[in-house]
Every structure is written in C-alpha cells, then in structure tokens.
Amino acid sequence: MNRLLEAELIYGRLLAVTEPHLVARYNKALSGFGLKATALTEFDIDMTGFSPQIAAELGDKDYLDPNRVNRRFVILTPEQESLPVVHTSFSNTAGLMHEFFTANARAINAVTIKDALYGEIEDSVATVESLEDLLSINEVQFRVLSAEDLLGKAGELRQLADRLQSEPNAWRDDALLNRMVELAKLTGDIRQNVLVPDKLVFRHDAFWANHFGGTYVFVDDKATTVICDPSAPGFRRSRPWQVSYVSIKDPAQIFDFLAKTGRIELPRASWVADSGLYALRAEMAAIGLAYGSDPTMDFSKVDAVWLQTFLHRNAESVAKDGTYPFLQEMTRAIAATGSLRIAEVAPALRFLLIRARPDHPDQWLTNRLISQMTPFDFVSRFIFDKQGFYDAYEGFSDGFREFVVSRLSQTYLQDKAGFRKRLYGIGEDDNA
User: Which InterPro entries match (predicted)?
Assistant: First the structure.
C-alpha cells in the first residue's frame, strides 16, 4: 500500500494530531473504550477519529469498529467535520457524523476548547448475524462522553444551579456555592456556552454494509430493497411481506430495480456526449483486457497510441471479450440517434451505459453499486467503492499497481470535483 499512501490515494486528507494535550485527550478516550493508550506522539485521524497509525500499533483496523456495528468516534476538534471517513462498515457513517456535527456545532465548538468528545453511534443491535439485524436499524443514537468529563461537570453544575433556584435556603450552603464556583472555572458560564449536545438521534436510511460480502439496503416510501449475495442469512426470509430481495448475481433484476425507482440516468446524448464516461469505460475495458492477457507486461508505456496498437494486434480477443467494441458501437449509436433502446441490451452490459441520477439522494450509493457491476473500471471503483478498489488492488501485479496509481494521480486527483461533475454529474462529497 506504500504507493497508495505516497499518492494520497489511501488515508489522504487526514488531520495530523501533534499537540501533547490532544494526544492525552485521545488516550483518555481510548481508555474509555477499554483500549491501550497509544505510545505515539503524533498520528493522523479521520472524521470519526480513526487513526491508521494507531490501528497499526494496536494490530486492529477495527479498534473503533469492534463488532462492525455501533461505530465508535473520538472528536478532538470541530475541524474533523471536513475530513473523510477512511475506515467504516457502513457507507452512511460520514453522513451521520456530518448530521451530528451540524446539529451540535455550538456544543462541539465549546467542549473541544478544553476537552474531547467520544462515544458510540448506537444502533438497535449489538452484532449483525443476519439480514434481519441490518433491517432492524432504522435510526441511531449518539452516546456521548468526554475525556476530561467536561460534560459530566456541566451536568452537575446545571443541577446545582437548579437547586439554587428551587430551594429557598440553598444560597446559605457554602459547600454548594463553592462547588459551583469550582465547576464554573472548568465549564465557563453554561447559560451562555452550550456544552451538552442536544440532538443525538438520527435516521438510518439507505446504506451499504460490509456484512455478508457486501449488502445494499435501499429505502423508498413504503418499500425496502436488499441487494446482496443470496447466501446471506435471512435472504428472502426476513420480513418477506415488507422487503424485496435481489441477488447481487442477477444484473437484470438489479437494473430493473434501479430503473423503476428512478435512481439511474438511461443512455441519452444529453449527458453521454459531454461526459466522457463511455470513453473512460472503453479505455478501462481495453486496459483490463491487456492486463488479463499478460499481468507482467510493462504498463509504464501505456498511452493512446499503445492502446490502439494493442487493440489492433489483439483484435480477435478484443472481439471475443466484446466490451470495448460494444462501447464504441453504443457511442456511435447515441451520437446518431440521441438515445438507445436499453431493453435490447443484454442485462450485464446495461451497467456500462448508465450512471446514477445526479439529483437522487442515493446517487453515491447507486454509483457504488454500478461500479461493483463494472469492476474493470478501477477509476469509478476508486471513486465510489474504495474498499472494493483496495481489495482488487491487493491482487494486482506490481507493475499494474504502479500504473493504476499513476493513472488515478494524473486524472482524478488533478481535479476531483471537476472530474466527478463531468463524468458522473455530481459534485462534492466528503467520502471522496
């Protein structure tokens, strides 16, 4: 993974924690979780407080996600809101964290001046043993503590203040008054500074979970649809009157669901012509074919001329695979007619021709599913399904790894927002 680290294609845009008092607060949070304190004096963290260096030190990438549910978090500074989430079992962790930061901005700003917040995003289940467990998660609650117990002290001060107002002779209690002064020195005036987060419960809607080989849960008005491997426990048995089940191995049903629920843009010249998406996928298909033919070849020479030479010299295998010529044909057809008859396209090939509808709330989740259905397109996979990309990357030859890193660095990383907007029609996202 060194190439990915150096190119900031993994664990990029993290926040460096270097100040001793912040390290000390982080260690108190670790202790609150029952974990060993870090010996590191410097480390990086993501939005949730996850640190790849501490994960390596502990030998546990899931130290903030021990059961892959009820995700833990550590907030040292409000600046974490602008960071990505680099390790999670649920695709909507970043969204939930954003909601928490936004709803409780005043409290987080006030508390983190003197303290750190930590806790868990509590679901309704402790472990995930079947699809029923995932389906039962409708909302989450943030259970919040503080490293220096500033929240506890603020709560105590509020109780004492209430006593002072409600009990006629409380003002004569020197011990009570002295304790209030002592606490106020630590918390400040709690009438002005909101220290306790007041919104802790949030909806848990559509998401991807890394359980059972990867599970998609889409939520519509009165219907829930699960897309996963049919071997997952509870498939077609958990709430069959309420939930529709689609096998991840059935491209026809997956496409039908995405189309009927308005989650995708069908192939039309209005977006295809200027996006360059078909050209990217055609290039990715050709490169994937080249890699499949000889994983040890020198990919440092790959450019437009090299690619055309490869295609000409391997015309038979290119035709047999069919992906590259299919995309070329579809590009010409759309240019000539403005649209395609998608029903006439084989189900497995339809995913080459679509993208998520940019104005749909599930656009990122849908693009993730599409990228999983077109795995040779490592650029789209990296953008929308980083875990899938990293898993595939591990199996690449060394030379191909170098090419993949170079390709991503020279294209996507040069202008991420512009690249996403042009090809997929969407803008900013903090997971990207």
Answer: DUF6638 (IPR046578)
